[in-house]
Amino acid sequence: MQKVKLYDTTLRDGSQAEGISLSVNDKLRIAEKLGELGVDYIEGGWPGSNPKDMEFFKKAKKLKLRRSKIAAFGSTRRANIPASKDANIKALLRSGCKVITIFGKSWDLHVKEVLKVSMEENLRMIFDSVRYLKSKKLKVFYDAEHFFDGYRHNPEYAISTVLAAQEAGCDAVILCDTNGGMMTNDLERIVMEIRPKVKVSLGIHCHNDSEMAVANSVAAVQAGCDHVQGTINGYGERCGNANLCSIIPCLKLKLGIDCVTNAKLKELTEISRYVAEICNMKQNDNQPFVGQSAFAHKGGVHVNAVLKNPESYEHTLPQLVGNKRRILVSELSGKSTLLIKAKELEADLSKENPQTRKILNLLQDLEHQGYHFEAAEGSFELLVKRALKRHSKHFTLKGFTVIIEKAEDGRLHSEATIKVNVKGKVKHTASEGDGPINALDNALRKALLGFYPKLEEMHLSDFKVRVLDEKAGTAAKVRVLIQSQDKEKSWWTIGVSENVIEASWQALADSVEYKLLKG
Q: Are 52 and 45 a contacting pair, CB within 8 Å?
């Protein structure tokens, strides 16, 4: 079986993505997770560029990585300075890493207009840097930056830069599509032309500016590369890097290429979400293999077919990558979808049961009004159980008032009073909050806690408002989604109204009812 080495650069290239800023502790946590996945190399950063990366390398020595190696990244020596005297090379050595990755220029445009050195001096910079690092008994990877652009403009010179690194003793040459503009057929052809000339390991490093990074990386492997660089979730500067969460299952499941174990492949979805959480980035729901929607089925025809044979609408089994199949409910749902969801809720429905058509009609009518139950399964469960008369309200609203005052100093003050009927008793409470919805939530809890102490466990964790018809202006309906959670789980509930407070109340009341339903 063909073997491919995985090289992760989430901690360096990935951290250059807009919106991502990783602390040293964040980087250590991600490195541990990558080690658990079993990637071969974890690029920790550029020790010569900032104190944070140097601190990471110092602390990373204490990580217990079973097979992964930490790599330090940097550039070739500067022009007309011996490698032994170059500050960047010295910083790479101080990192203490046994694996060093250095990049150099392969495109003559960069040599002439960016570095502003002679073509010969650039070759010496590459050779001297690799040779010096190899003299320190280190594993050295050479990243041929802008290689494909360079090859298209001046193939002889681009190849000469790679051969200079090889002659100096590098352990691998990595061909980089730094601008991310290569088309797959061109990239594959170039790799096949280069492969016979390179005697060491040949790698690929793609950026995603043309949405081709994963395809190009996989094609490069098929053309002869045995080393692949990328990031978790495709994080990276501009449009990102090649996404290892797609590359790994493509290699393993589609091509039968060994890169991680079957057991570790099943952890891929969890790792994707873990890294997204640490990076403070929302995971892309539509991300292949590991996204929440990757195996989600909504249309009635699709649902019916996939339940008879998953292969009919799924290219692979979700459990192989640690994901799961999801059946969504919406106005597009047919009876099959509803019956599946009812079974999940332990509700007794069948195609012949008239309640099935009644619930389906209710669902479609509410979705037409602006409800969106695939995003609010807590409210959907309540809808089904209410329709089947399997759920009785734990409280009944008698009325509420929300007051918002703006003080002379500009500060806003929110207060809510609420009157509810609970177990035959009327509770009338008031509470303040950071905003009107928070005040209303606090007042409701205050009224109910004496009857339902378990509400102490839950809190609101997210709040989303969407205007459904912008053309209607201030008279437009709004949809409010509220995410709540306790120590075990989280759930979403929904409300729709022309009044944002009323829509919020619907979602808030459902969130509390759902918690009380589940206990």
A: yes
